[in-house]
Specification:
The chain has about 110 residues and is of the alpha+beta class. Helix content is about 60%, strand content about 15%. Strands 1-3-2 form a 3-stranded antiparallel sheet.
Length: about 110
């Protein structure tokens, strides 16, 4: 993970996208309110909304109304995508560790 952070800092280019940050967070933490999910990425609020709309349209994430607050949405990975993440990251402890760092936004330059 430090190598990725080093390259990001050196090249001044994001190598890990906001889309992947959202997916990693949802995989590790499950259903999450939109406001909380937005706070976990490095995207602007406007860009976050575009990303979520695109991920929903592609069937990658699902959403439902937050029953405690009808104005809020709760997002989660689609079941098939959750399985894809499990297949990709649960077999490799290092892969899961990197995924956890991405989901938590722990990037050190």
């Amino acid at each position: 993970m430090k190598r990725i952070a080093y390259l990001e800092a050196k090249l001044k280019v994001r190598l890990i996208t906001s889309e992947f940050e959202i997916l990693a967070w949802l995989y590790l933490h499950g259903p999450t309110r939109s406001r909380d999910l937005s706070a976990k990425t490095r995207s602007s609020p406007a860009n976050y909304q575009i990303i979520v709309k695109r991920l929903r349209a592609a069937g990658i994430i699902s959403s439902q109304e937050d029953y405690s607050d009808g104005r809020a949405r709760i997002y989660d990975l689609a079941p098939a995508v959750r399985q894809d993440f499990a297949d990709a990251f649960e077999q490799d402890p290092d892969g899961r560790a990197v995924l956890s760092e991405i989901a938590l936004g722990q990037r050190l330059a």
